[in-house]
Amino acid sequence: MDRTEDPMIRLEGVSKRYPDGTVAVHELDLEVARGELTVLVGPSGCGKTTTMKMINRLVEPSSGRIFIDGEDVTAVDPVQLRRRIGYVIQQIGLFPHQTIRANVATVPSLEGWDRGKTRARVDELLELVGLDPGTHGDRYPHQLSGGQRQRVGVARALAADPEVLLMDEPFGAVDPIVRMRLQDQFLDIQANLAKTVVFVTHDIEEAVRLGDRVAVFEQGGRLAQFDTPARVLGGPADDFVAEFVGADRGLRRLAVTPIEQVDLERPPVVQVDDTLSDAHLSMDAEDARWAIVLDADHNLRGWIGVEDCGGSATVGDRAERMEAWVPKDATLKEALATMLQWDAGWVAVLDRDQFLGVLTPATLHEALRRSVGADDQGVQPEEVTLSSTGPLH
Asked: Which among 4, 231, 282, 320 would be 20 to 30 A from 175, CA to CA?
């Protein structure tokens, strides 16, 4: 994302001090770009939730200024401000005696939308979050599962089409499997809507999985690091950030590191219509024990081992189905998980059905080192040369 444009949210020297002298947030400067999902993360009591609540003035700042789309919101009516900002919390906060449809329609009703427009918007949003309006619209919150109620909370926050969405531990109250599904669904929604989102969590895994940028807070409401997930994991700003993201940050970085063309190996390739003897010769020429099998359109049709290349049949008669594959937009973590799932020594990378190359455990490790080196040196991954001890430019 181009960060040279004016940010959607800007905090300038914002602090929050309580009468007993406690400093929750200390002189915070922070910018959130338009359409960006920024995650505030840190230990309990570090000021991340207070920071988020100052944006919609549920908590009033003690000093500093807060701008949304260039407007200083410390000088506007807080009730009107909150109607312009979507807000999702862990407890969801649905009105128990109102239907799901009425809950989602809360802000449009307050804004005086007509009934037809409101109903159309509610139905649109319920479908967006994966709930059938005809099935769920007239139910009450207690008739839905926790995950369904959380999705209703997201729909309600989006009802008036706000440009800014604040989310306070929104998926923390559901089990891990449901939480993962909600995260995936929200990423899909965000990809379509491109809202400016400030998301609070205490979980670094959730932070790096969801965030375009991650703000790590330390005690006393100080901002320790604000950067992309990959850079937070690959280059912690100080000992506090390194300890907070954990010693296994290298493994976590796999989840935010994309597969690059430079990471891929090109093994021997044979055609599905080749004879087995020709395939054997091709593998012998490259001293290989196996080859990728493609059709005439370069689509992946499987693989074949050199020991199978005997007799008068064609490659297609002996080729093994290729289960270990990932799409080109997968992460290194997804590639590693696929290798482990299929107990494979390599994983194919595809652009739809088109074969691009393979990742092996060795090249996957090199890809991670290359990504870290690219961040450290401020260059593209293909510009990093790897040595036996580390990345070199």
From this structure: 231
Bridge partners (DSSP) listed for residue 40: 200, 215
Give CATH for domain 9-254. Answer: 3.40.50.300
Reading across the β-sheet that carries 222-227, which strands appear in turn?
Answer: 85-89, 164-168, 196-201, 37-41, 213-218, 222-227
Q: How far apart are CA 192 and CA 143, in angstroms?
A: 29
Considering only the top CATH level, what class is 261-366? alpha beta
Instruction: Give the integer Cα–Cα distance in Å for 287 and 258.
Output: 30
Residue whose structure tokens are 């049709």: 301
| Burial class of 64 by CB neighbour count within 10 A (0 to 12, 13 to 18, 19+) | middle
236: Cα separation from own chain's centroid: 19
Q: DSSP letter at 150? A: H
Contact 46, 217 (CB under 8 A): yes
Non-local CB neighbours of 142 within 8 Å, separated by 6+ positions: 96
The sign one gets for the Cα dihedral 19, 25, 30, 35 is negative
For the chain, give every residue range classified as CATH 3.10.580.10.
Answer: 261-366
d(CA 7, CA 101): 34
Instruction: Provide the 8-state DSSP code for 247.
Output: T
Nearest to 58 by CA among 38, 37, 82: 82
Local confidence pLDDT in tens for the 393 residues of the chain:
444 468 999 999 999 999 998 999 999 999 999 999 999 999 988 999 999 999 999 999 999 999 999 999 988 999 989 989 999 887 667 889 999 999 999 989 988 899 999 999 999 999 999 899 999 999 999 999 888 998 999 999 999 889 999 999 888 777 888 888 889 899 999 999 999 999 999 989 899 999 999 999 999 899 999 999 988 988 889 999 999 988 677 778 888 888 998 899 999 999 999 999 888 888 888 888 889 999 988 999 999 998 888 888 899 899 989 899 999 999 999 999 999 999 988 999 999 889 999 999 999 988 888 887 777 777 777 777 776 555 444
- From-to residues of CATH 3.40.50.300 in the chain: 9-254
